[in-house]
Model the fold of this input.
Amino acid sequence: MKLHPLSFRKSCWANTVDSMKRSDLLKRKVADYSIHSHERASSLVKKMGESGGFTAKNLALGAEALEGMLKEKDCTRILSFPADVVSTGLRGVLAQVVKHFDAIITTCGTLDHDLARAWGKGYFHGSFEIDDRNLHRMRLNRLGNVLVPNESYGEILEKRMNPILKELTLQKSEWGGRELIAEFGKRVKDENSILAQAHKHKVPIYVPGITDGAFGTNLLIFSQDSKLKVDLLMDERELSDLVFDSKKLGALMIGGGISKHHVIWWSQFKGGLDYAVYITTATQYDGSLSGARLEEAVSWGKVKEKARMATIDGDATVLLPLLLAYVYDFLLQP
Done:
């Protein structure tokens, strides 16, 4: 029998929703909304959730999951993010929110940018379309549409790190990565510094790829003429204790790569995350971890089947402030 096109669509839909009834799927209407003068960001995010469509709805779902995570007293909370956002003004937002988490997992570039911006003369507005050959001749590095002068990055790190490392090796020759990062955070006098705020609020920072950047290269160069050693497994033992001592686990993950993977990798040993919010710009169709939806992590046992979770597609420099504005209005104090 030849199927009528409408019949075909009905049969496909029936397979997709499995045993669900049509009436079960038609309980919540899409709601139009309007924006008012002086409207709070939290109010706008709630309205976006009622709008039913696309990233706006997922942003609201993420805000609700994050609120639940932060309300849960017995939840151990992990924040992860990559380095690129630390080159932008979002660094200040991340520094502000550090105190609401129990651990941070990030990349070596976060250490680079955070220290460079604390010690150097600043990063600058640029453009995605600037001629990079000319920038190279002017000793300017482009990170998206942010300009990073050589003297505000590698040069200042080498100049400022060596005296601190000399001081630290007088105390002992072998350090864990988290220990080293805390010592640097203690010495930074910048309220917008992630390292400084983490040290102030006793929040450990873990960088599993600590050699993958200027901070790590300076450790290597310094170690050639000193007895400095870095015990990377010390950090992993601490993360193991953090996970196994937890009653529940939650994570706010910005971007993918090693920082995201290290969060979900350790979470699987505790049965998976109970709360998970993930912001990404990557596509899932190349099989990358950065593009993988949180639902994929469920299949690995890295996120629980009944976890409160949301994957939000988009730029964290736009989405994260909206998420945090929502929870600050309803839950937290800046």
